[in-house]
Specification:
single chain, alpha/beta, Rossmann fold, 2 domains, 7-stranded mixed sheet, 7 strands, TrmK, SAM-dependent_MTases_sf, tRNA (Adenine(22)-N(1))-methyltransferase
């Protein structure tokens, strides 16, 4: 992978960045994503934020090699602290992290989201936490995508500011309203695997002392299995 040829996962993230955006790519690593978008002429400016010195240095080098220093600025900062009010950021990408970490970055940097028109969030696991954060903070799910690459399944959740409060059902929070409607083969594969794993955990829990904590966990798993099987059953009827 390089700035000219992204992984399929990052290519799909890039596809949701609006034309003419000022982008903040948080956890930018080698800055491949903003470099790719700048080389394609999609964005008019970008901030590549990195909290770790090694990837920050790699990103600086990459931007310099591509001759993009007038378009992309690399900053060493934690999360949305990389963004300044004067940047005029209109889109933010956060990719390659777990949903809870992405959520914590958004929550800690909420003040930096004013004026942002789109969040493109790629969760490796636990996309539910992103949807819960969106509903709690008046961001609507604009688009979702699920894909498999190198036998790993990823979700992309695209959020835009909502003009009124948004509400999602438990099924939608867990599995994604748009992904549920589409029911792609990757979606079915993911949730069939998850359901099977939860059933194995339930069986193993039978051998432990049935404390209140264990009973609560069992109920949570049973409820999630029912939600998933209900949604998947629609596909099979």
């Amino acid at each position: 992978m390089n700035a000219q040829q992204l992984s399929e996962r990052l290519k799909r993230v890039a596809a949701f960045v609006p034309e003419g955006a000022v982008l903040a790519d948080i956890g930018s690593d080698h800055a491949y994503l903003p470099c790719y978008l700048a080389l394609k002429g999609v964005i008019k400016g970008a901030i590549a934020g990195e909290v770790v010195r090694g990837p920050y240095d790699s990103a600086k080098k990459q931007v310099r090699q591509e001759g993009l220093e007038d378009i992309i600025e690399v900053r060493l900062a934690s999360g949305l602290a990389a963004i300044r009010q004067t940047d005029g950021v209109t889109a933010i990408t956060i990719a390659g992290m777990g949903g809870p970490l992405i959520t914590s970055i958004l929550e800690e940097g909420k003040v930096k989201l004013e004026g942002v028109e789109r969040l493109i969030l790629q969760a490796n696991v636990h996309g539910k936490s992103i949807r819960e954060w969106a509903a709690a903070n008046q961001w609507a799910i604009f688009e979702e995508e699920i894909l498999k690459e190198n036998d790993k399944i990823y979700e992309i959740i695209v959020l835009e500011p909502a003009s009124s409060p948004v509400k999602y059902s438990e099924e939608e929070l867990l599995m994604g309203p748009i992904l549920m409607a589409e029911k792609s083969s990757v979606f079915i594969d993911k949730w069939s695997r998850e359901s099977s794993q939860w059933k194995r955990i339930l069986v193993s829990m039978e051998a432990t002392e049935q404390t209140l904590q264990i009973l609560a966990k069992k109920k949570e798993l049973v409820d999630k299995i029912h939600l998933v099987e209900e949604v998947l059953h629609v596909e099979n009827t």
